[in-house]
Design brief:
β1 (4-8) and β2 (12-17) form a beta hairpin. Helices cover 18% and strands 22% of the residues. It is built from 2 helices and 3 strands.
Length: 73
């Protein structure tokens, strides 16, 4: 089963595709205030700036994490 979840801070939405995750822990090591694998939900998008989140998500080696910018109303 392919699980996909989204977490948003209002400016950016983080997309997590669980089936692609290789558990490299790059996200948790690079931005531990946002990515907390031992918690549920494990992604806390309000804990860092949008730029920090984008920079870290781009480092995901498996492609399990991606993002999109939310449209301004």
């Amino acid at each position: 089963m392919e699980t996909e979840k989204e977490y948003s801070n209002g400016e950016v939405t983080i997309v997590w595709k669980a089936h692609l995750c290789t558990h490299s822990a790059n996200c948790a090591k690079g931005l531990p205030e946002v990515f907390k694998p031992k918690e549920k939900p494990w992604i806390h998008p309000h804990s860092a700036s949008t730029d920090q989140i984008i920079e870290q998500v781009r480092k995901c080696p498996s492609g399990a994490l991606s993002f999109y910018l939310n449209k301004e109303e």
